[in-house]
Amino acid sequence: MKRHYTFWLIAIVTIVLDQLTKWVVTSTMEVGRSIPVFPFFSLTHIRNTGAGFGILQGQNTIFILVALIAIVAIVLMMKKILEKHHTTVFATLILGGAAGNLIDRLVYGSVTDFLNFSFWPAFNLADAALTIGVLGLIWMEIREEKDRK
Looking at 18, 104, 113, 147, which residue is catalytic? Predict the structure, then answer.
């Protein structure tokens, strides 16, 4: 039962932090404004209708459908996910990240990105959660595969 609470807590905290940081950016910075923090990093308010690297710009419907499918799949697989404690964190990061960006796409028609490294496309906390979640699940699968051999 405790894992069940952990599952929802991580997802909710991810969504709240994502939406809170995006709210701060949208309420304090005009689109396009950039605040240098380090020589290689700035906070830059960007409205993104696509994915990273400018892929599929303007294809909001596709991203809404993918997010909905991911969210529904994770919720439906929750019982199985909870059986493997180490996958719980990664799956809920994916759930929270997908939900955070889904909220933006449904409300604004685009996603607010603001973490801008000079060597990488701008992103947000939901993107970071999604990436960590996916990479974590891949890592766990590789590790389990090695253990089976």
Answer: 113
